[in-house]
Prior knowledge:
The structure holds two protein chains of two kinds.
Chain A: E1 5-14, E2 17-27, E3 31-35, H1 42-49, E4 56-61, E5 64-65, H2 70-76, E6 77-80, H3 92-102, H4 107-120, H5 136-148, E7 154-158, H6 166-182, E8 186-190, H7 194-200, E9 203-208, E10 211-217, H8 218-222, E11 230-235, H9 239-248, E12 252-257, E13 260-264, H10 271-281, E14 285-290, H11 295-303
Helix pairs in contact in A: 3-4, 3-5, 4-5, 9-10
Chain B: H1 3-8, H2 25-38, H3 40-63, E1 68-73, E2 79-81, H4 82-106, H5 109-116, H6 118-123, H7 129-148, H8 150-161, H9 166-172, H10 174-200, H11 204-228, H12 238-249, E3 253-254, H13 264-293
Amino acid sequence: xxxxxxxxxxxxxxxxxxxxxxxxxxxxxxxxxxxxxxxxxxxxxxxxxxxxxxxxxxxxxxxxxxxxxxxxxxxxxxxxxxxxxxxxxxxxxxxxxxxxxxxxxxxxxxxxxxxxxxxxxxxxxxxxxxxxxxxxxxxxxxxxxxxxxxxxxxxxxxxxxxxxxxxxxxxxxxxxxxxxxxxxxxxxxxxxxxxxxxxxxxxxxxxxxxxxxxxxxxxxxxxxxxxxxxxxxxxxxxxxxxxxxxxxxxxxxxxxxxxxxxxxxxxxxxxxxxxxxxxxxxxxxxxxxxxxxxxxxxxxxxxxxxxxxxxxxxxxxxx
Amino acid sequence: xxxxxxxxxxxxxxxxxxxxxxxxxxxxxxxxxxxxxxxxxxxxxxxxxxxxxxxxxxxxxxxxxxxxxxxxxxxxxxxxxxxxxxxxxxxxxxxxxxxxxxxxxxxxxxxxxxxxxxxxxxxxxxxxxxxxxxxxxxxxxxxxxxxxxxxxxxxxxxxxxxxxxxxxxxxxxxxxxxxxxxxxxxxxxxxxxxxxxxxxxxxxxxxxxxxxxxxxxxxxxxxxxxxxxxxxxxxxxxxxxxxxxxxxxxxxxxxxxxxxxxxxxxxxxxxxxxxxxxxxxxxxxxxxxxxxxxxxxx
Lengths: 319, 298
């Protein structure tokens, strides 16, 4: 089966600046977070994938060569830009119909799909109003609809929740999360907002200074340290007593609350040690799990920045 | 279940054929024509003004066709009938209307698209810079041609209708071709050249200002300098250049002012250079916008 995106020694230089440094990766998944600080090379990567700029090495999207088949790729890929990119003096329906026609759909088909895409984006009756009077949230929805109208197989979303209030942000993330199911299309989400990635992505690609630093599933990202010996234990009561008992057995313990304790198991020990210790102490365990880093912590670690410890408690547990 | 989900129930991926890459400029062309037609003040009112000018010229042509022009002669010095002279002189009126329409629909197009981020919208799709440029040029040319080409062709038709017999009609047939040539040149001047100016800057207001300043101030200055130095200098004024080409095609001269007449070749050259330069600037701007426009901040 063809991978969504294949990069082979992909490189791009602007004068003396290396925007992409021989990136090699096979990227797959249904919602992929493309992460990296400013200047990481995310925009250059998107341009290369859309076949808009020349580059060194190889890049393929849906099995198509980005350098030679950029036009075909752009017919099969949707792009929701971060910045304002809507034509003025049109209604949302007119704009999306125009977008569909520019992507090669016949006029009637483009119009039908424009209505469907705007319904999907939640604009419904407002779709007949001029875009000029839309709020930021509505404009974001139109941008999503115009990227969807030609039925893309992959959707590139660039900071889709930028400028949205919390409620609109949640709604936008819901729409994004449902896209793979309702529209059978994969998502590449380029964003700075790591909670957004944590909320909707199943894969992540992390770039820094033009180089690929990580590519894999979110679980791999958060569990990349391989420390399944780091646990959180929630009890009905009396966590300090369990902490003391485990410490006597050689485990590292950190008390978070009267009912929650973080445990670092000693070498070769398993979770059986926790269960046995709790049983011996007459304590009842409510929940036990492997502590995972938050995406934010994992991101910082991958970038080589601050290396915070695992997120405490159930909040850092796998969903 | 939300309305969107209900709407989704009939959703199927599109598997039909797509318009070929080479014809997508027609979508932009249609959009440009529809945009111009949308409001009264941008085009329709000026089309009415152009139609009125054509009607008045046709009336003059019909009622005064046998009269002679006093101010103008043919190349051989003979007097010219109004019927034969009205068409080249009507271009001056069409040029004024064409200039106004260029301000309302052509002069801010590319700057406006840069300003609104529309290039990202366009080039995230399978469009090439030349598709965009051709679509805009053809679309605006269709709109402008209703005034700049339609008027002269109607007048040429009326002139043919006033022919005094079959031989006269056959002799007058080249009038249609000449009207067509003048109309096409006029259309391109007011569709393409302002588009070129709109590609020079990235703000709509500045684009309008520099086109207006070039057309009116530089044009007037060139006309003045043409009188003082050499008539060819006046060819920088596009309406004057078009008038010179039209007068040459219809063989009409300003009486006693042959020294001030711009050579038709130079006038035509000036028009063509303006058009070519405008297309060059457009392609440069659109190509660079294509590469810069997609991606945004990282």
